[in-house]
Amino acid sequence: MVNALRTVGLCLILAALVCSVVGTGGFASATADRDIAADEVDDARGYVGYDSPAEVRIAFNESANATNASDADERTETVALVTVTNRLDAPIGVTSVDVDAPDGLDVTVNSTPADVSPGESGEVVAELDCERSFEDGTLSVGLGIDGGAVSAEISGDEGDRSVSVTCDGQS
Fold first, then answer.
1. CA nearest neighbour of 148 among 95, 99, 71
2. Phi-psi bin for 38: left (phi > 0), alpha (psi -120 to 50), beta?
3. Helix, strand, coil fractions of the chain, as percent rounded to 5
4. Interval 9-66: pLDDT, tens
5. Within 13 Å, how many C-alpha atoms sit on residue 133's CB side?
6. Per-residue burial over 39-59, b = 16 or more CB atoms within 10 Å of its CB, e = otherwise
7. What does the alpha-carbon distance between residue 91 and residue 85 come to, in Å, rounded to a whole number?
8. What is the 3-state secondary structure (H, E, C) of 78-124?
9. Residue 101 contacts by C-beta under 8 Å, 6 or more apart in sequence?
10. Taking Cα atoms as reference points, which of 54, 153, 137 lies closest to residue 100?
11. Is 155 exposed, middle or buried (0-12, 13-18, 19+ CB in 10 A)?
C-alpha cells in the first residue's frame, strides 16, 4: 500500500514537472486588429477638419535680377497644402504627411502642426518646385493625426485630398 501511494505520488510530481516545462496549451494574452470603415462626410461638426486648396499656380521666375541661369529657371512656391482644424476636446498633432506628386514636381514639407488646440487650426506648409518639363498635374496628400486617445489616417483619392498644380511660363 505504501509502495502504491509512493508510486502515485511520484507520478503526480512527474506530471506536474512535465506540465511546468511544456505548458498547458493556454495563452497569457492575445491581440487582434479589427478593420473599421467610416464614411467621410462634409460635416462642419466633424472631429477633424481637412481643407486644401483646389489649385496652386506657380509662375515662372522672369526676374531681370536673376544672377545665374538656375535662378531664372526656378519655378517654386511655398504653400499651405492642408489646413487641419481641431474640433476635439483635446490637442491634436499631425504625425505624418504622405504626398504623392506627379513626375516633375518636387514637394518638400517644411512644417507640420504638432500641437493644435481645440477649436484652432494648423497648416501643413510645403515647397513645390516645378522641373522645366512639368506643366500641370495633381498631387494627393495624406495625413496621420494623433490626439492621444484618438488617432486617424486621412488619405485617399477624394477631391478634397488632391491639389491641382499648374506651372506657368514654360521657356
1. 95
2. beta
3. 15, 40, 45
4. 877 787 776 666 665 555 556 666 655 544 454 555 567 888 888 888 887 665 544 4
5. 3
6. eeeeeeeeebebebeeebebe
7. 11
8. EEEEEEEEECCCCCEEEEEEEEECCCCEEEEEEECCCCECCCCEEEE
9. 107, 137, 139
10. 137
11. middle
CB 97 within 8 Å of CB 109: yes
For the beta carbon of residue 113, count every other beta carbon within 10 angstroms. 20
Of 170 and 7, the one with more pLDDT: 7
Residue count (the chain): 171
Q: Tell the burial category of 143 from Cβ atoms under 10 Å away from its Cβ (0-12, 13-18, 19+).
A: buried
Rg (CA), the chain: 29
Give the bridge partners for 136, in sequence order.
166
Contact 52, 161 (CB under 8 A): yes
SS (H, E, C) 129-146: EECCCCCEEEEEEEEEEE
pTM for the whole structure: 0.64
What's the rounded Cα separation, in Å, for the pair 151 and 111? 20
pLDDT value for 92: 92
